Write the structure tokens for this entry.
Amino acid sequence: MEIRSISNVEKEVINDIVSIHLDTFQGFFLTFMGRGFLKLMYRSYVEYNNSGVLVAFENDKPIGFLAYSGDLSGLYKYMIKKRLIPFAWYSMGAFFR
């Protein structure tokens, strides 16, 4: 097993992270927000300074992850500043579900 931090260019890994999240956290609030919302959120973790995502790989396939931030309030401000409209769109979808 290999554990490493992922970069923003590894979009396929972010898709795998979202799939792991959806399978693991069924019935949780963030899961209810949907795949698109989760992709935006985990991309923000990867892009924002002092935040990131560690991924565990087995045979080059992601099997688990840890998203972290040393500045959650800054991360949330970053998400709102950079992705307000897409987050609002996905939030409306969750509202109507």
